[in-house]
């Protein structure tokens, strides 16, 4: 962009540009109750706390069914059929739910990237105006210096 002694002011530039959107706020409004649930589960499952919980549950289950009195064991070794069944059910429920949550987070990341791009474009336009003002100021100073030299 080239300006000849009349670059727009920052105020004019800001008045002509669209407002920056709060993507996080808009996304929260747009999400349905089920999408919020999927995101919550995805965030919970993706923690070390959940990993440790599953590890303790598995170790407790296996230890109980290996070392508890025989009459109290409810899932005999070495098959651990109930444990395998319960683990598979948990996986079958969590896998699609986590995938849905990741898809939602992916859409949100795209929105955030678009907003970042808009902010970058706006900043670039503002920098161009500042540079144009500085160039014009430089030209005016040169003209002023020439006039002073002539006198």
Give a description of the structure:
This protein has 151 residues and is mainly alpha-helical. It has one domain. 78% of the residues lie in helices and 0% in strands. The chain contains five helices and no strands. Helix 3 packs across helix 5. It is rod-shaped and about 110 Å long. The model has no long low-confidence stretch (mean pLDDT 86).
Beta-strand residue fraction:
under 5%
Q: Which regions contain 5 or more consecutive residues with pLDDT less than 50? A: none
Mean pLDDT: 86
Give the class from helix and strand content and strand pairing. mainly alpha
Largest sheet entry = none
Q: N- to C-terminal separation? A: 35 Å
Short description:
With 151 residues, the protein is an all-alpha fold. The chain has helices at residues 10-16, 23-30, 33-45, 48-67, 81-150.
Write the layout of secondary structure elements.
Layout: H1 10-16, H2 23-30, H3 33-45, H4 48-67, H5 81-150
Helix pairs in contact: 3-5
List keywords for this structure.
mainly alpha; 151 residues
